[in-house]
Specification:
alpha/beta; 24 helices; 1023 residues; six-stranded mixed sheet; six-stranded antiparallel sheet
């Protein structure tokens, strides 16, 4: 990470004005400084960078009301704007933090909002505010240890314990990738689940076997042979059945056709009647239908015209009456309409009078508001004078407190001295407690060892350790030799036992299969040999048990001896630490360098007094801010009241002018008399006049419109009535003429009257349909007659027995059911065979997979033991740490002129190899202040180099915010020389200090000064 710019405002001692640090100028020489007195605001720069990136600070956490306490008490806004480059491509990033103070409540500071951006060409693209760790490759804790190192933390990595240092190495170099225990556990769990699944699947296939498959195949083959035989028999039965079925159908068909023919013969008279009916109907249609339809149509037209004529005459009469009524009142309505403007003028005069009355009321209210505003303005002026006096009084009190204020920085230094004193005492007390605890532990371990040794027959505290080990080794050798002898004997007896089986069947004169002899004076007895085998086997088991107990005892002795030695070493270490702690206590007690020797109680009282002064000052500052805000508010109120008075005055002048204009427009004396009326009476009269005017217009226009509408309608109806009367007379004449002609034709026919003919015609007979029915009947009768003759010839000499046929059908159905059952059973057997084959294949596959998984389980178990308890990660961390020390030693040995070297103990603690003292080792705590700085600097630079390679940055950068004031001149000289070497390297280091000598050694720097009125200011060495 290489900073580019930092802009800050309103944070800690920095007040309202924005101040920007251009790091490109500052870091150009590689080594730069930030200098200033204690409390000037140097460390604030580092806290601003930390907070912008991570939202965390060294001084405050979230529970400390960070928003309020970080913001300067004289500021209303807080701003941190930090731009930096990172990575091999030098990508630019920007992190911003902002906050505002509530203008109405001083203590209420909004939560500090953070934003983050990445530069893409000329645009800032928003990114997550939590991305700093991903960008820099460091979390907040490691960022403070390796990039921005606060006061008192520079030596932290050097003095970290093994656990914390290992954790830091894991985070810095992402060593969690080497923690394979979880992955191994996941593999194990997955493998176990697969094994359980396989076992479950195999349990389901327990009954599956080759024998069962062969049994099913044999049963299926035999059944199929039976099925094939039955199929042939079924075909023969079906042929016989088919012949009988055809005979049955023939006789049934003859019977059916005879019945149908008989029915048709019965229907023949009905068909003749239909023929006569059609003939009469057709005669009426041809002679009379057209004439009768014409007469009927004319009668319908006559009736319709009569109805319409009656309706038209009724409408004509109604319109005539309505028109006469409207015309009679129209003359009077027109006279009123011509004088309607008088009503309108009366209403306008009344509206002006009403407006004048309303304006008069408004003028009165405006005059009252102006008087009230002038009074309020005077009261506000009095408040402003009072607040100005109060402000002067507060400033005088604040100045008095500041002039007599206690030096909190000095009290803090004394308090730090007491804190360190108490810390050393506490450490010494804890070490002595630990010593007593480990002495008791050593005593208990010694007693346990003596108890174990006594089991071997040795006397406690009198037998050397080597002698005990030799004794155990001798006993083990003796037992193992005896065990080998017994095992050989058992093998020999087993051979004899095998030979005895042959000897039992040997007879005198037969050749022995082993030696070939025909004479057998002493044959082996199997009973004797079995007894010997049992005896030696019991002896073998006893020796093995004794040997196992001896091994266990030896292991317990080794473990207890190792524990006892570790406890003794820890006791020696504690004694050394106690001695060192006592020396530190004396050194620290002698280091008290303040003018007055005070007790902790006196110091606490001084702090209380100083805090009271600080609180009093803070209260006054808050009160001053409140008074200033009130003064500002009252001044604004005064200005606001004046503006309101001016607005009301303008409104008053405008209303008076309108009043005079309207009053001049009142023309008549009658109108002026209306001033006596109330506003409500005026409004009512205006409404009445307006309504009367509007009604007159509406009534006149409606009457005129109705007259114009009704006259044309009346004339039109008169013409329609005359036309329809003429048409009706013509139709009546036509009906009378047609009726006479029709009666003449009927008289000459066979029909008696017009009604008889009408009844026949009204039947509406479908002649074509009826003719088709007749034709169909005759065709069907002929066809049936021919068919019956043919069927009877076909049945000659043949017979059919229904009982025999039914028996045959029943036998055939039963035989088919048997066949169906056999076929189904065959299909089931075939399906069972396929399923068995599939399951056999599945079972074989599962068994092979089970073997593989069990083998894999054994391998995973080995891996699990390897990666148990993060052992592999800790090992890798140790390798990285050793590489880090190797890199740090290149600089550290150079800085110390090859006199000192950093090394690691077996427990991963730092020690020093001192080549001025025959290369012996000593604790890092024995280094001087300057040497400690050199060692810490070397480690910090080595860490920075490693982090540079991880984050792929071309440069590495870090701040040292170190208390250099605690170093003596010799140590400072070492620091100077160490820092000067950094100018030759491709790195950037910033030093923050209040020591003046440091400023003389560094060319590029910032000078921070804290002004009591304007806050911290930044001055640049190149300006």
């Amino acid at each position: 990470m290489i900073p580019q710019t930092l802009t800050i405002k309103g944070i800690y001692s920095y007040q309202e004005k924005e101040q920007t640090i251009d790091f490109q100028n500052l870091t150009s020489a590689g080594l730069f400084g930030i200098f200033g007195s204690v409390g000037s605001g140097k460390s604030t720069i580092l806290e601003a960078i930390s907070f912008a990136l991570y939202g965390e600070t060294e001084r405050l956490n979230r529970r400390d009301d960070r928003g309020y306490n970080m913001m300067n008490l004289k500021s209303d806004q807080l701003l941190i704007d930090f731009i930096f480059k990172n990575g091999d491509a030098d990508k630019q990033y920007r992190f911003i933090a902002k906050a505002k103070r509530n203008s109405k409540k001083f203590d209420d500071v909004k939560t500090i909002a953070r934003e983050a951006f990445r530069k893409d060409k000329n645009d800032w693209i928003p990114i997550s505010v939590d991305s700093a760790e991903e960008i820099t490759g460091l979390n907040y804790l490691n960022f403070r240890r390796t990039v921005i190192i606060p006061q008192g933390r520079f030596q932290e990595f050097l003095q970290l314990g093994d656990t914390d240092r290992t954790k830091m190495m894991k985070e810095l170099f992402h060593l969690e990738k080497f923690d394979l225990s979880i992955k191994t556990k996941i593999l194990e769990d997955k493998n176990n689940i697969e094994l359980i699944k396989l076992d479950t699947q195999l349990q389901k296939l327990t009954d599956v076997s080759e024998e069962k498959l062969l049994e099913k195949e044999h049963e299926w083959t035999e059944l199929n042979i039976k099925i094939e035989s039955n199929k042939k028999l079924l075909n023969e039965k079906q042929k016989i059945n088919e012949t009988q079925k055809l005979l049955k159908e023939l006789f049934e068909k003859i019977e059916k056709e005879e019945k149908e023919f008989s029915i048709l013969l019965k229907q023949k008279p009905d068909i003749e009647n239909i023929k006569n009916k059609i003939k009469t109907y057709q005669e009426c249609i041809l002679k009379f239908k057209n004439q009768m339809d014409r007469i009927l149509e004319s009668e319908k037209k006559s009736k319709k015209l009569n109805d319409e004529l009656a309706q038209n005459k009724k409408q004509y009469q109604s319109i005539s009456l309505e028109l006469e009524k409207i015309q009679s009142g129209f003359v009077e309505l027109k006279l009123s309409f011509d004088s309607k403007e008088e009503l309108k003028n009366q209403a306008l005069d009344l509206e002006k009078i009403l407006k004048i009355k309303q304006i008069a009321l408004t003028i009165s209210k405006l005059e009252e508001r102006i008087a009230k505003g002038l009074m309020t303005q005077e009261e506000t002026s009095a408040k402003i004078n009072k607040l100005e006096g109060k402000l002067v009084e507060i400033k005088v009190k604040s100045l008095e407190i500041k002039q007599n204020q206690t030096d909190l920085a000095l009290l803090m230094e004394i308090k730090n001295w007491f804190n360190q004193l108490n810390s050393i005492k506490k450490e010494l007390e804890n070490l002595e407690k630990d010593k007593l605890k480990f002495e008791q532990k050593a005593k208990e371990q010694k007693q346990e060892m003596d108890l174990i040794i006594s089991k071997l027959g040795f006397e406690k505290d009198s037998t050397p350790e080597n002698e005990i080990k030799n004794k155990i080794a001798t006993l083990k050798d003796e037992m193992e030799t005896e065990l080998e002898s017994i095992e050989d004997e058992i093998k020999h007896i087993k051979v004899k036992l095998e030979l005895s089986r042959y000897s039992e069947n040997l007879s005198e004169g037969e050749a022995c299969p082993v030696c070939g002899s025909t004479h057998h004076p002493e044959k082996m007895e199997a009973h004797d040999l079995s007894e010997k085998t049992k005896l030696f086997t019991e002896k073998q088991a006893n020796i093995k048990t004794a040997l196992k107990d001896l091994n266990q005892l030896e292991k317990e002795i080794d473990n207890k001896t190792l524990e006892y030695q570790l406890t003794k070493e820890r006791l020696q270490e504690l004694e050394q630490k106690i001695t060192s702690s006592k020396t530190n206590l004396k050194t620290h007690t002698d280091s008290y360098q303040f003018d007055n020797l005070i007790t902790e109680e006196e110091l606490e009282k001084a702090f209380i007094a100083a805090n009271k002064e600080k609180n009093d000052l803070l209260i006054l500052e808050k009160e001053q801010i409140l008074v200033e805000e009130n003064l500002k508010a009252e001044t604004k109120n005064k200005e606001k009241y004046q503006e309101m008075i001016n607005v009301i005055n303008n409104e008053l002048v405008s209303n008076k002018a309108t009043y005079e204009t309207l009053f001049a427009q009142i023309l008549t004396a009658e109108s002026k008399e209306n001033f006596k009326l109330s506003s409500e009476e005026l409004e009512n009269r205006i409404v009445l006049l307006t309504n009367e005017y509007q009604k007159l217009i509406v009534d006149y226009e409606a009457a005129e419109k109705n007259i114009n509408r009704l006259r044309p309608e009346k004339d039109k109806l008169h013409g329609v009535i005359e036309t329809k009367e003429t048409e009706l007379n013509n139709i009546i004449f036509e009906i009378e003429s047609s009726s006479i002609k029709l009666e003449e034709v009927i008289a000459a026919s066979k029909f008696k009257s017009r009604n008889e003919i009408k009844q026949i015609i009204d039947i509406e007979l479908d002649v074509d349909k009826e003719n088709q029915i007749i034709q169909d009947f005759e065709n069907k009768l002929y066809s049936l007659d021919q068919l019956l003759e043919k069927l009877k010839k076909e049945a000659e000499g043949k017979s059919f027995d229904q009982v025999v046929y039914d028996q045959m059908i029943e036998e055939l159905q039963n035989f088919k059911l048997l066949m169906d059952e056999q076929t189904k059973k065959s299909a089931w057997l075939e399906k069972d065979q396929k399923e068995l084959k599939t399951k056999l294949l599945e079972k074989t596959t599962l068994q092979k997979e089970e073997v593989k998984l069990k083998l894999r389980a054994e391998n995973i178990k080995i891996l699990k033991n390897l990666f148990k308890a993060s052992g592999f990660v800790n090992y890798v961390s140790s390798v990285y740490l050793q590489n880090l020390i190797n890199a740090a030693n290149q600089r550290f040995m150079s800085l110390t002129s090859q006199k000192l070297r950093l090394e690691l103990t077996e427990t991963n603690d730092f020690i020093i190899r001192d080549f001025l003292n025959e290369g012996k080792t000593r604790s890092v705590k024995t280094l001087s202040g300057g040497q400690t700085f050199q060692a810490s600097l070397s480690l910090a630079l080595a860490l920075a180099d490693n982090i540079q390679s991880v984050t792929k940055s071309e440069h590495n950068f870090f701040f040292l915010d170190e208390g250099f004031g605690s170093l003596d001149k010799e140590a400072l000289s070492v620091v100077f020389s160490s820092l000067k070497t950094l100018r030759k390297e491709n790195r950037i280091v910033g030093v923050i200090s209040h020591v003046e000598e440091m400023q003389q050694e560094i060319d590029n720097y910032l000078k921070i000064e804290n002004d009591s009125e304007f806050g911290s200011k930044i001055f640049r060495s190149w300006e």
